[in-house]
Design a protein that fits this description.
The structure is a homodimer. Chain A is of the alpha/beta class. Helix content of chain A is 21%, strand content 31%. The model of chain A has no long low-confidence stretch (mean pLDDT 94).
């Protein structure tokens, strides 16, 4: 293979991984387990919510007209008819001149059209003095005001937040249709790599990228499956890749920072399927491989930790988002002012790690082989391919880690 | 009990929950399980990272001085001495006038002080033509440049991201000291509440708040434990609370929107321990209870869904953050321009739900009994107690859900 890569723009890499992402399959799970999962179908309310006109305060249900002009100085006097019991249909209705005690959440009795808060009343024997005028409908949550029976409460593709889980409970969705969690195989290659439990000897380093990739995959709603460290041996790597393709929905091959490792990964992917892209116009992260085998995406990540991480956030996350079925994946971006000039090479997207402090984004420069720049920075700024750099004082969007 | 609550400022409520939060206990778990968990101790590198001078490119290790003035027009010619094998100590060293092939990640051989990228060289028999000048140290990652042996790589209290997991792997931290996941008991009260699996009859609604609270607790790194729906019966509620106090680290009592329920919860907490706060100057969310029993926090949430949710994000999250040991809990805030005037009552903090679109924050007004406003909005803006409102066009910080 050539020492020069044929690089493609980041946008093409993203479009490619989105195109080859396998469609997620579906399952049904209990509501208590659904936090953070992605809906695989629109959910409809099975009842009207609420199913009755409901008080939103503790107070007295009244004819609003009976309170017209009522004030501290001139209260309206209404005859009280007892109380509404929680959880039961309203019993007695009221006639003009009457009122009935109603707790928050109680059913509005027939004849009543508003509630006076208890703070604005005073009990006087069998009568109640109302010290405030209320309007028609005041302090009442109307029948089906929240959701109508049959209405879509949440849409397919929504990643479920705490509020969403509350809405699903109200809508009667005790078992939730969701997309299955994709399983992502992770293979490490490189003769220089040793397990975390080993102490590296001269020339060796610990395999940290596969752990980073596994955690990233998990943060993006997928399940990592680790296959361990493969030596730079074609048969060994091929056996691992075939096994991972059989057990997972996609495979990440965490290089191998040397060209030999990368070439072997590319050759193997080509042998078992196809290499679609080898080289992206991104810095750091150029020597990335995007391929497919057994109809499953196979991504070769660059070996330098910072390069691998930038490729994960800039490209691989789009693959994972598509595979999880998330229709509106979150990208945390905050606005900041750039503290220094940042030059950039035209024709490639540059991702510059930055530290955020008091609204200022300060570049954290450092070789892409370093891990420490990743944990000392808060996110990255992206310099588009058509730009030659950004100037100190410019407003920039910072993608938070 | 009085119908009027003695309300305290939000800041006092936060300080109180932080004070009564039990200290988290610790455990040690495998690195693969540590994503999203919180470190309970500083982690030190057990080795120098890297442990040797390392090439960051594929190329030729050289004496930088030998390349001075080298260019396409006048290349330097160096005698090649073979190659560095990955994962092994460097064998042969080089003398001036010599070079050696080195893959990315290889050990810099004795005598070499820089690497020329392979793209800038040309093989010519046993010699290599170098077409570019390199500086001393160029393309070399130095011994312990990433982390020195013994250096703190990550601090206690850090919630572990993907990059952090990578750093821990490099630092040899195969088993990670973390704070245990706090267990939060959730009890629902209210005669009007029925389970999600039931169809509500007249006067009834489904219990959605306890599901919402459970999911919220999970989103904030805790484990919810649900005790189900308790009828408005003191002995039943007391038995549930005692059981939850025995099994959990803190308990949320999801009201009961009626005053009867709230009063019963407050009376029970007082009986088993103490009610510290009953009423917060927050809207929505005023009728919140903060108490303690068996040295464990017990929080009574208001019954209206939007009120309960605002109390969760404005107050309870500070309790959970403290209990998880998270030293720098994340609060996603984005800047936006307010689309409408929003009046507010002086003396209380108002939390107004907003929809975010193209940098504009549009208030989503709606009764606090509604769930739909929570899923139709993207977050809230906070109007401080000392303010009487915000004006259209003002810049505001939006707390994203």
């Amino acid at each position: 293979m050539s020492i020069f890569l044929h690089v493609v723009p980041v946008s093409e890499a993203i479009a490619t991984v989105q195109k080859i992402a396998p469609l997620p399959v579906q399952e049904t799970i209990p509501l208590e387990k659904a936090t953070g999962r992605v809906l695989s179908a629109d959910i409809h309310a099975d009842v009207d919510i609420p199913g009755f006109d409901r008080s939103v305060v503790d107070g007295f249900a009244v004819h609003a007209a009976d309170t017209t002009g009522a004030s501290d100085a001139i209260p309206a006097m209404l005859h009280t008819k007892g109380r509404v019991e929680m959880g039961h249909p309203a019993g007695t209705g009221i006639h003009p001149g009457e009122c009935i005690y109603i707790p928050t959440g109680g059913v509005l009795p027939a004849g009543a059209d508003a509630i006076v808060m208890v703070e604005n009343t005073e009990q006087a024997g069998g009568d109640v003095l109302v010290r405030k005028t209320v309007a028609h409908g005041e302090n009442v949550l109307l029948y089906n005001e929240d959701f109508s029976k049959g209405a879509v409460v949440l849409c397919r593709g929504r990643r479920l937040s705490a509020q969403d889980i509350g809405v699903l409970a109200a809508a009667g969705c005790a078992r939730v249709p969701v997309f299955c969690v994709p399983v992502i195989g992770i293979i490490s290659t490189g003769n220089e790599l040793v397990p975390v439990t080993d102490t590296p000897k001269a020339g060796q380093i610990r395999d940290s990228n596969s752990f980073m990739a596994g955690a990233f995959v998990q943060e993006h709603g997928c399940l990592p499956k680790h296959y361990g460290i493969m030596k730079d041996d074609r048969e060994v790597l091929r056996a691992a890749l075939e096994r991972a393709l059989g057990e997972c929905d996609a495979v990440l091959i965490s290089g191998g920072s040397s060209k030999d490792d990368r070439d072997m990964a590319a050759a193997l992917i080509a042998e078992l399927g196809e290499v679609i892209i080898h080289g992206i116009a991104i810095a750091p992260g150029k020597p990335t491989i995007i391929g497919r085998a057994d109809k499953k995406p196979v991504i070769g990540l660059p070996g330098h930790p910072a390069s691998a991480f930038i490729v994960l956030i800039a490209v691989v996350r789009h693959l994972l988002d598509r595979m999880t079925g998330d229709a509106a994946p979150e990208q945390k971006v905050v606005q900041a002012v750039l503290a220094n000039n940042v030059p950039s090479q035209k024709g490639r997207e540059d991702y510059v790690r930055v530290k955020l402090e008091n609204g200022m984004a300060t570049p954290v420069f450092g070789k892409s082989g370093l891990l420490n720049t990743l944990v000392k920075s808060d996110g990255v700024i992206r310099i588009p391919a058509e730009s030659e750099g950004l100037e100190s004082g410019e407003r920039v969007g910072v993608w938070l880690w």
